[in-house]
Batch of 3 targets.
Target 1
Amino acid sequence: MSGPDPTPAAWSPLVISVAPTGARRSKADHPALPMEIAEIAAAAAACRDAGAAMLHLHVRDRDGAHLLDAEAYRETTAAIRSLVGEDLIVQVTSEAAGRYRPDEQIAVIRETRPEAVSIALKEIIPSPEWETPAAELLADLHRDQVMVQYIVFSTQGITRFHDLRRRGIVPGDRHFLLFVLGRYSMGQTSVPDDLLPYLAVHDRRDDWALCAFGPRESACTLAAAALGGHARVGFENNLMRSDGEVADSNADLVSQLCAGAALMGRPVADAALAREGLSEGPSGRTRRAAGRPAG
């Protein structure tokens, strides 16, 4: 006789995102950091196989520098799709990384027309005069059912997000936030306690995930998993396994998180479940609903 389901009903499947490249690191930091299109696609397939449901996509220019470019996004997404089909949500970044103005970020999002995009509110709305163009962009993305993830870097960022949502600049009834535990700075190391101030301010109305820096990335992401959030791992923020060894690949970090989630009894979402679980309606937030079978 089987017993009751030990998984708490409030625990939706864990959505694991992977950020394999980022805007700053290079092969000098890790030889397996993917920078070329074929390398990014291969890493995407390996991370899908390891348990990731979403890929946070950065692309680089000829010199290896951070690039916001719609054609490069489309070409790289096509290469990823050729290997994984719809089995990954491809989330493009709009990160400025010190190179792009808000109008340039807005333009590339509009031109790319991605399935999903991450937006740092402090970058796209650095001052009040940017509220109107940002509101127009976000309204269009909401209408087109693009999955938007709002990146916040502090408790003040959450408070600001709540205000923008209240005033209708951020549209919709349900949202997806990313809490960044720390800053992109030399030697940054995040710890699980860094999550607590975010949760104290967040009203739990919206889905959330975190990303963390340094060798305690795994501990931070497991804290998120235990508290009902989601998580992002990858070489963008961290190169180390929890045992202190350098990770072999991005997929290595994804596998580590999956193993930890299994120990706590939290199921891991594939792309189809992630699309459904992060949606605003019963049919899913995005137009693409097909995904690999769960399990």
Target 2
Amino acid sequence: MNRKKFTPLILPIIILIIWYLITSVFNLVTSYVLPSPINVFESAITLFSSGKLFTDSIDTLFKVFGGMLFASIVAIPLGILLGWSKTLEEMSSFVISVLRPIPPVAWIPFSILWFGIGTVPAIFIIFMGCVFPILIYTIDGVKRTDKVLIEAAQTLGAGDFDILYRVMLPSAVPYIVSGLKVGIGIALMCTISAEMIGSSSGLGFLILTATNLFDTGTTVVGMLTIGVIGLVLDYIFGKIQKQIFW
């Protein structure tokens, strides 16, 4: 038996035991402050059997992948272009440097003014959160292309487009995947924030509604569902990275 496979489970089990002891055995905190694992489990069963947890999760994932798709369509081609042309990079560096540090949630008022309430403003917030990490990683990937490969291609008579398409782009793929991996985590955080303020569906709206009704068990279920989704997506991108690097 490989003990390393079970090592990551040790801390969660310890946390679960402590959580159970302070909420259900010693009653050190009330369910309003922190629900017990039993309450959370009961809430999870209720949400799962009603289908609400599934529909809200699908709704959140739709927004996440919608925002990621639009961010990738903009950031990857633009990143390749800026990484390839030093002049274009210098022209756009100031604008990128100003916009990149702005938190995605700061765009929520404008997203509501421009798109109203619902799915579209959430996708816009995700787009604003993901586009810059993907862009920066793509630019960096193109610029890190081995000079020897470029010189070898030039020696063999390759033109600028061939070098970009056949040398720089394949070299940048691992960095692009890394940017997407970073972006997916940001996308989840942006989605939940946007759903809490400008949406009427999804896991963020579920958490907000449950909190307003003092249903902390459902709140924790929503939070844990987001964590599990993030874990699964991180695992998938990790596998993709290993395939590319190896």
Target 3
Amino acid sequence: MANSRVYLRPPEADDERAFLAAVRRSRGLHHPWLKPPGTPSEYRAWLRQTAQPEHHPFLVCRRDTDAWVGVINISNVVLGLFRSGYVGYYAFAGHEGQGLMRDGLQAVLRHAFRTLRLHRLEANIQPGNAASLALVRSCGFAQEGYSPRYLKINGRWRDHERWARLAG
């Protein structure tokens, strides 16, 4: 979208130092909802994982300053008759609450449905994460269910709501 406030780009090995600094500055924003890569070895492992064909990682960047707004990942993409994947995301401190991640998620949805030709994207969100729930609602996701003890985050199994967005 030409008038979008953000653009997407893949993370690179050279981004490590700046990425880790952004994660450090954002700890209060992320805890207890998620634990993004926070050490050099975790960052490199994340890059290796997201380099696999079933993963599509994006840095969401401000068009006016090139500052990183956050990260959006499409993971576990399955093609064939299923044509589905999962979307996960997190903002970086200083960019939250401005609609920039919504712009980024809308761009990722266009990529998922037009370029990858997926039929479905699913987001799993902890029930108390009001900002994340508001984000998926604003992008047309519908709640489909509830999964007790769905993901282990920060050493604890956490319940999640299942939200999905279909193509079209």
